Amino acid sequence: MKGFVFHGTGKSAWEEVPDPGIKDPTDVIVRVDAVTICGTDLHILKGDVPEVPSGTVLGHEAVGEIVETGSDVRTVRPGDRVLVSCITACGRCRFCREAAYGQCRGGGGWILGHLIDGTQAEYVRVPYADLSVHPLPGGLTSQDAVLFADIFPTAYEVGVMNGAVRPGDTVAVVGAGPIGLAAILTAKLCSPERIIAVDLADSRLEAARRLGADAVVPVRDDPEQLVSDLTDGLGADVVIEAVGVPESFEMCTRMVRPGGHVANVGVHGRPATLHLEDLWIKNVTITTGLVDTSSTPTLLRMAASGRLPTTSLVTHTFSLDQMEEAYEVFAHAADTGALKIVLGEPPHDELAVPAA
Fold it and tell me: Which PANTHER family is this protein grouped with (predicted)?
């Protein structure tokens, strides 16, 4: 089969790789029908995630069909259409027992496309399948469903839930890429008074407004002043950092009100300054985190019922063998207008699946 292989900083290729096989009785093999590219994949290619070994197939998000199961798998069987979660959960360690699957110490956590071969291939082995793949509701297309492998649970859990968004809040989302846009959509579930989106790119701000942001502001137009003006000088109740650079994190800490929350979602490759000389007196809560995906089943049901629109986030589609071209488009999003890219062909009978 073919997969997209990382060969060290700045080096990668769509090339022949060995077919995956069952290694442990809790494994499944999934034929990939749809896969997407994450900003974290770009961080890996830049060298920001040094623990990824050369020769690893990248990718941690996919939709596909189970083609083989290990002897201990109980919840899925060959022929099932599933979502492959970005997080793998052993189900037995302390953290899994607390539903903190992202911190799994039993061989799970973020391993796909990180510590083991990932999903950007024609087939993928998924360990601990009973908690790490999700049967899909009927009628939910692969293009929609694949967005729930990572960006929606990440935005909701690490941004909205960690940020403790409540009815009536002012929420500022710094970074209107896929995660930031998903944060806007899921923050709306909590009935905030207003959502303010901040980004460098006008095209992303237009997408943010289309998806429900009440105000948008480019970085060049002093977003901190806008937040102050809209909150009578108080600051935002919740600020969600969805970029992953020092400048955006530090901006977030200046935007938040006393007693407010800064929820960092972005993947940082460089140190950021924490200005405790200003923050110590403000009762500010700063959270970080890797998604646990405990919300994935709920979010999938909401998507299937039409409560969470998704296709408006997908701007480009490619076949799997166009992986290298897709990476180029995604890596130059400021020029291409790319938000979320989906690769792969849906199964011919996908839309004929009966509703659950």
Answer: NADP-DEPENDENT ISOPROPANOL DEHYDROGENASE, ZINC-TYPE ALCOHOL DEHYDROGENASE-LIKE
Q: Are residues 138 and 14 in the same domain?
A: yes
**Domain's final residue, options 235, 256, 287:** 287
Cβ neighbours for 298, distance < 8 A, ≥ 6 positions apart: none
State the total domains in the chain.
Answer: 2
- Which tokens sit at 145? 């469903």
**pLDDT per residue as tens digits for the range 30-84:** 999 999 999 999 999 999 899 999 999 999 999 999 999 999 999 999 999 999 9
**216 and 310 within one domain:** no
Residues 212 and 305 in one domain: no
* Cα Rg of the chain, angstroms: 20
- Which distant-in-sequence residues (6+ apart) come within 8 Å of 132 by Cβ? 84, 85, 87, 88, 89, 108, 126
Q: Which of 269, 287, 305 is the last residue of a domain?
A: 287
pTM given for the model: 0.93
Which residues constitute the domain of residue 189? 153-287
The answer to whether the beta carbons of residues 22 and 67 sit under 8 Å apart is no
Please indicate, yes or no, whether residues 112 and 227 belong to a single structural domain of this protein. Answer: no
Apex 57 CA angle, 52 and 60, nearest 5:
80
Exposed, middle or buried: residue 237 (CB in 10 Å: 0-12, 13-18, 19+)? buried
Q: Report the greatest alpha carbon distance in the chain.
A: 61
User: pLDDT tens for residues 319-333?
Assistant: 999 999 999 999 999
- Non-local (6+) Cβ contacts of 221 within 8 A are none
- Alpha carbon distance 296, 302 (integer Å): 10
One domain for residues 233 and 94: no
Rounded CA-CA distance 150/142 in Å is 14
Q: Is 130 helix (H, G, I), strand (E, B) or coil?
A: helix
Torsion over CA: 191, 282, 173, 309 (sign): negative
> What is the per-residue DSSP string for 168-200?
T-EEEEE--SHHHHHHHHHHGGG--SEEEEEES
- Which residues in the chain belong to E strands, given as ranges? 2-6, 12-16, 28-36, 56-57, 62-69, 81-84, 123-126, 133-135, 170-174, 194-199, 215-218, 236-241, 256-264, 285-287, 314-318, 340-343
